[in-house]
Specification:
The complex is a heterodimer of chains A (149) and B (98). Chain A is built from six helices and six strands; from the N terminus they run αβααβββββααα. With 149 residues, chain A is of the alpha/beta class. In chain A, strands 1, 2, 3, 4, 5 and 6 form a six-stranded mixed sheet that branches. Classes of the chains: A alpha/beta (149), B alpha+beta (98).
């Protein structure tokens, strides 16, 4: 199954945002993810994202970052996709800008699932045509459809 | 006379991942931060997959968990140092506690 179909919903996909700060990015991802399960609190998710990013950048190359949280509050994985209108400097270790963010939350105990999600996301994101198709989307529905195609 | 580029002989080594979380994002990023310091090329094989050891996405595609054996091939002018550095990183569990 397509990893984006598994992780995303149209409600958790947001295109063409003018954001340009880490806080705004994490705020968006937290709000989107919190809609997935009513046990999730967006303020806590926001803090979790900030803490995780302090440990090391979640930038994975080609303008893509995958901020993520391991949580004991969920028993399945959920994701949120955010596309920026313009890229921003997200990682200090590269000159490349980041404009696509796939944030996700994964059950803490299931490390194997976590690694499989990383592998599936990497397979998709390493494809240049796929990345460019996501960048061409001008609204959230189009972005969701292209990601889950 | 044109100088030929310096070449290595290609070194290969099997190293087993031993940290609890395997090759997750932070470990993969540390891997690439190490390999990109060197000129040599690095290819990693594991369970029928073969990836570029200078790409975070490439490394994560292996979904290598604790106990996975990586077959690492390095080739280039600084291949020996690169291989040693990578071996140290993996054996130190990427600086993780477990």
């Amino acid at each position: 199954m397509n990893i984006f179909k598994k992780l995303l919903s149209i409600d958790r996909t947001l295109a063409n945002q003018p954001d340009n700060s880490h806080n705004k990015i994490f705020r968006h991802l937290s709000m989107l993810l919190a809609t997935a399960d009513n046990k999730l609190d967006h303020e806590i998710l926001f803090e979790n994202f900030i803490e995780r990013e302090k440990l090391g950048s979640t930038y994975i190359g080609h303008g893509i970052a995958i901020p993520h949280i391991r949580s004991s509050q969920v028993n399945k994985a959920y994701g949120a996709l955010l596309q920026l209108e313009h890229g921003m400097k997200f990682s200090s270790s590269t000159e490349e800008n980041t404009d696509l963010f796939l944030g996700f939350i994964v059950p803490k105990i299931d490390n194997e699932q976590h690694l499989k999600i990383l592998a599936n996301l990497s397979e998709k994101f390493s494809n240049n045509n796929f990345r460019e198709s996501l960048r061409s989307a001008k609204d959230s529905l189009k972005l969701y459809n292209l990601a889950t195609k | 006379m044109r100088k030929l580029p310096e070449r290595g002989n290609m070194l290969s080594k099997k190293i087993t991942i031993n940290n609890k979380l395997g090759l997750h994002v932070r470990a993969s990023a540390k891997f690439v931060n190490t390999t990109t310091k060197y000129k040599s090329t690095i290819k990693i094989e594991s369970e029928n997959k073969s990836v570029n050891g200078k790409s975070i996405m490439g490394i994560m595609m292996l979904a290598a968990k604790k106990g996975t054996e990586l077959n690492i091939h390095v080739e280039g002018p600084d291949e020996q140092d690169m291989l040693q550095d990578i071996e140290d990183l993996i054996k130190n569990n990427f600086g993780e506690k477990e």
